[in-house]
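Let us work through a complete example step by step.
Step 1: write down the sequence.
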Amino acid sequence: MFNSLINLFFPKVCAGCKSFIGGNEYIICTSCRHELPVTNHHLNPENEAFKKFYGRVAVEHVSAFLFFHKKGMVQEMIHGLKYKGHEEIGTFLGEWYASDLKDNSIMNNVDAIIPVPLHKKRMKERGYNQVTNFGMALSENFKIPLNDSILKRKVYSKTQSKKSFLGRTEGIETIFDVTFSEKDANKHYLLIDDVLTTGSTLEACSKALLKIPGAKISIVCMAMAHS
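Step 2: predict the structure and record it as tokens.
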């Protein structure tokens, strides 16, 4: 009864199209769920996300769950996740993508899941890292620990989405660093982020993690920018 009253005065809306959603729907409406632009990257090791890192950094696997189009429903969902406190969207996407990634053996070899970190000032402003719940969902499904302390962002900078291509790549390799010990060596790390665009941030994070002796890197994102 209490939940019914809450829904009466504060009705839930779809994170994609903003229409009201029914009691048997969660996060997005049934219509949007069927229209989400899934990439199926997990079925193709040589997918377009993986190819972004050719000649840039050695990675074992790269995949994104959804295609991100400007003014599309995926952009609406990611915007709600990052700027409106809808952390449940990260959980929803992580749970869904985990079911797809079970078809890919790469997850069997991962030792730890590492979110792309926020600078402590940005974390204070936002109150949360938008990638954490996505990572926790993957962690729980695959029984792989999430480690948010090994990789650090040293430099506070303005939001990547507000930068030009050159602005996103300029000096980015100095932004991240790692703190590790002998127990972290010879492990396979799964680096996770929200949207793969130029790949510069993930490249810089990967290069920082590769300072760990014997480290291997794979990458999984919620979405990938697509023309």
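Step 3: interpret the result. Confidence is low (pLDDT under 50) at residues 1-10.
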